[in-house]
Amino acid sequence: MAACIGFTSHAQITSTANQDVVLNLSNVVALTFVSTGAAVGSVVTLPFSTVSDYANGVTSSAQQLKVQSNKNFNLTINSSSTNFSYNGTASPAPIMPINGVLFAQVSNNSTGGTIASAFSNTYGNITTAAQSIIANCLNGGNQFFSIQYQAIPGFNYPAGTYTANIYFTASQP
Which of 25, 48, 116, 160 could form a disulfide bond with 53, CB atoms 3.0-4.6 angstroms apart? Predict the structure, then answer.
């Protein structure tokens, strides 16, 4: 019998290890103004310089906002107070209500949601109560909508600067 020389049998030796990786996701939603990249937008100034401006109102340019949300969401609008704050020389200071003077309209919507009728193709009153502007918006990282303001103060208020703070809220149901 001949002997095999130089041939040895080696068994393959292996070892494995494993571990679980767990992602703890939280519900998140962020609402920012595109112009600033922040939750505070640029100041919108509506100048009234002609009789026509006072009689027919002045409309702002579109103010675009971006929503990032991992769940479907709803959008609301409201003012922080009932009246505009006044800065001017009239004494006593005039009281101009926001409701009935300042209005908003959704001028563009790519959120996948439904625009509330009061803010679709018409300018809706802004009040201190949170009002739905777009409902059932789809989740995503780049959901945009735009708002335009219209103010019609009429002829009952003296010259000066009138300021209103407007809030937009994105909330997940």
Answer: 48
